Amino acid sequence: MSEFLQLMSQYPWLFITLSFIFAATIGSFLNVVIHRMPVMMKREWQQECNAYLEEYHASTLDKSLLKKLAAPIDNYPERYNLLVPGSACPKCGGKIKPWQNIPMLGWIMLKGQCAKCKAAISARYPVVEAFTGLLVAILAWHFGPNIQFALATLLTFILIALTFIDLDEMLLPDQLTLPLVWLGLLVNLSGTFTDLQSAIIGAVTGYLSLWSVFWLFKLLTGKEGMGYGDFKLMAVAGAWLGWQYLPLVILLSSILGAVVGIVLLIKKQQSGSLQIPFGPYIAAALYVALLSGDNIIAAYWGYVYGR
């Protein structure tokens, strides 16, 4: 292993290239997570709802209604998780062969169509793969072959999944955010990105910062401005980077969210009630802070004191 790391250190271009290829391959699996996890969650919610109704309200509800509520909420196979069934065309059910699943190249070879029924395959699949490869290649260039790169890569994989799930479903699964909080604290036991005290304070402060904004907005308007998943994702930022970086993450995510929101409002000519997921902007700000937080903060203070 040490010889491999030494080789990667001697040839950075090789390390960056291999990192891109590896990450693009993982990006193919992230496409599965992005699509299937919400389906699995909705099925779990339905089962919990049915169990509650049968236990406490079965005697007061019409049997036909209970039967209707218990009906499947989707057209996917009964056994449906991140591994089963294998990849297939959603229209004809034709199995996608292993060589057709090669990141980016598989979609190009198929010309964006199912080999069997010629139904269009979304271009987002190769985009997610390329995007994942690019972000990890940047991490490889920035950190080099070390433990920080490995952990930052894992964080980036999960942030990408969270981003696209939030864009699709307006939710940030606890199954992804909560483990990231605890992992961030464990990572910083040895001070990988910050000291443990800063990580603990960061996790608490990150959560409470958006939690406070949520309740203040709700008290003033009677509406909910964001979801609880956003609080947990901000806790992730604090746990991984420390409380010192939270102002930067909040500022960057707010600016990015405001710019995108304004563009969408103008483009769609809709009112201010347009719902925009905030998770992707927190994730983007966290990634930027992970790479360049020190430089951005130093540049800011240099500008302030240099005036």
TrEMBL record:
<feature type="transmembrane region" description="Helical">
    <location>
        <begin position="199"/>
        <end position="220"/>
    </location>
</feature>
<dbReference type="Pfam" id="PF06750">
    <property type="entry name" value="A24_N_bact"/>
</dbReference>
<dbReference type="InterPro" id="IPR014032">
    <property type="entry name" value="Peptidase_A24A_bac"/>
</dbReference>
<keyword id="KW-1133">Transmembrane helix</keyword>
<dbReference type="InterPro" id="IPR000045">
    <property type="entry name" value="Prepilin_IV_endopep_pep"/>
</dbReference>
<keyword id="KW-0472">Membrane</keyword>
<feature type="domain" description="Prepilin peptidase A24 N-terminal">
    <location>
        <begin position="21"/>
        <end position="143"/>
    </location>
</feature>
<comment type="function">
    <text>Plays an essential role in type IV pili and type II pseudopili formation by proteolytically removing the leader sequence from substrate proteins and subsequently monomethylating the alpha-amino group of the newly exposed N-terminal phenylalanine.</text>
</comment>
<feature type="domain" description="Prepilin type IV endopeptidase peptidase">
    <location>
        <begin position="154"/>
        <end position="262"/>
    </location>
</feature>
<dbReference type="InterPro" id="IPR010627">
    <property type="entry name" value="Prepilin_pept_A24_N"/>
</dbReference>
<feature type="transmembrane region" description="Helical">
    <location>
        <begin position="149"/>
        <end position="167"/>
    </location>
</feature>
<keyword id="KW-0645">Protease</keyword>
<keyword id="KW-0378">Hydrolase</keyword>
<feature type="transmembrane region" description="Helical">
    <location>
        <begin position="125"/>
        <end position="143"/>
    </location>
</feature>
<comment type="similarity">
    <text>Belongs to the peptidase A24 family.</text>
</comment>
<keyword id="KW-0489">Methyltransferase</keyword>
<protein>
    <recommendedName>
        <fullName>Prepilin leader peptidase/N-methyltransferase</fullName>
        <ecNumber>2.1.1.-</ecNumber>
        <ecNumber>3.4.23.43</ecNumber>
    </recommendedName>
</protein>
<keyword id="KW-0808">Transferase</keyword>
<feature type="transmembrane region" description="Helical">
    <location>
        <begin position="12"/>
        <end position="34"/>
    </location>
</feature>
<keyword id="KW-0812">Transmembrane</keyword>
<feature type="transmembrane region" description="Helical">
    <location>
        <begin position="278"/>
        <end position="303"/>
    </location>
</feature>
<keyword id="KW-0997">Cell inner membrane</keyword>
<dbReference type="InterPro" id="IPR050882">
    <property type="entry name" value="Prepilin_peptidase/N-MTase"/>
</dbReference>
<keyword id="KW-1003">Cell membrane</keyword>
<dbReference type="Pfam" id="PF01478">
    <property type="entry name" value="Peptidase_A24"/>
</dbReference>
<feature type="transmembrane region" description="Helical">
    <location>
        <begin position="176"/>
        <end position="193"/>
    </location>
</feature>
<feature type="transmembrane region" description="Helical">
    <location>
        <begin position="249"/>
        <end position="266"/>
    </location>
</feature>
<keyword id="KW-0511">Multifunctional enzyme</keyword>
